[in-house]
Amino acid sequence: MFAEIHIERGRIRAVLPCTIGTIVRTETDSYEFPGCHVSPGFVDSHAHVVGLGERLSAVSLHDAVSLEDCLSRITSSITDGTSWVRAMGWNQERWSSNQWPSRDDLDRCSTVIPIVAMRVDGHAMWVNTAALRAAGIDPTGHTGLLIDDAMRPVWSALPAFSREEVREQILRATNEWVQHGVTEIHDMDVAPEWLEPFRELAESGHLPVRIQSFVRGQDREWIEAGLLPAGGELHRIAGVKLFADGALGSRGAYLRSPYSDDATIHGIELLSVDVLTSRMREIVDAGWPCIAVHAIGDAAVRNVLDAYDVVRGLPDGRDAILRIEHAQHIHPDDVERFARLGVIACVQSTHCCSDATMAEKRLGADRLPWSYRWKTLLDAGITMTGGSDAPIESSSVLDGLRAFVHRTPYGMQSSWMPSERITSQQAVDAYTSIAHHAAGMEYRRGALRVGFDADLVVTSHDVCEYSDRIGDDIRIQATFTAGRLRYSA
Ligand SMILES: [Zn+2]
Predict the structure, then answer these.
(1) How far is the CA of 207 from the centre of ligand 1 (A)?
(2) CA 365 – ligand 1 centroid, Å
(3) What is the pLDDT of residue 470?
(4) Structural class in CATH, domain 84-157
(5) CB contact at 8 A, 378 and 335
(6) What 8-state DSSP symbol labels residue 115?
(7) What is the mean pLDDT of the segment spanning 258-276?
(8) Domain ranges of the chain
């Protein structure tokens, strides 16, 4: 919509009609965006801020066209002070040779400095001899390629980032998000030691977006670290994050019936219903307002709903914000209960575009319709929010909106299971007004209303009419968080 917005002390003071586009007036400045539209700032309701920062700080191999191209990028990143090299994004299918790389290739960059290069999907790691040695792995006869669990020793050997490095990563990542019109991020699986850099950046005015931290709880890390919920304008410690299962691609998602492409496997039950329930009891007893549980397979979703059923019966659980992250594959019998328990589905629409072909193989035709079922969830009255899961997927909200509305898998031309598409308005709501419900901030954010926080995004076209008429032309022109201009094109 076109509007003239007046801001005072970070809040919306007036919303007036405007015929020429968008005008934003603060106490000291006035900004004019002729022909542009304004809407509440976007919320990325599931992402990994430090993870994206790490990705942006690593040597990027994403667009490398050959093995030689990768090697020269890595070599030129090495300076006198380099102790480890971290690279990301290689994909041998993009290379002219099409061949898997080897340890010997990487040894041409250095034989003394350990080098770790992640494949684009995050499931394969390419290392040199020095990295194998540092991880305590005998290099004799080793290819230098490590898949999934085999990567663990190298992860353990990698030095932890310093507080200064974490600070840099947070800034890099949040400055990328703000360019996508994001004013708030629900940051998942946050390590306790990252909270201090977030707090410092928030208090010094350097954080361009609001952060709701969901801290690690799988091994009760929040208890070990003595954490409790804490409020702040730009940084809030809002909830605890658990994992009920793994991911579909690596057959870690926990399914009620075996995988269609491997009848011996059901996936991984990371926490049983009993353990989930006892973890959740501790969380609500400590006064946390939100619980977020990663659940992808139908068995994992059912486990979490069983545990949430118990939580709803606890005195402090009745009003708790109970979320299921991803909620990718839901048995038809569980949809009604999902709604009745008031559980929020925090979905990442771009996963559907990346995973469609793989999901068909893993799940088979019969239960495929239970997957990525956004319209079904909305029709059942379930609160559904949008998120990116960056750095696993793109941090762009426009990509997320496009996926919700079109459901066109990458590399394909037509919509996949089109009956589960949702409208542009529903998609925008999932990233704005509805998303704030998932952190309990809907009472002061997510609408252009007097008294609400002045978190705004200015766009070249109306995002609510984004899909049908505007296509890919839409651009983010400006982002305001807490009444301050944080980005302009
Ligand atoms: Zn995630």
Answers:
(1) 21
(2) 26
(3) 52
(4) alpha beta
(5) no
(6) E
(7) 95
(8) 84-157, 163-446
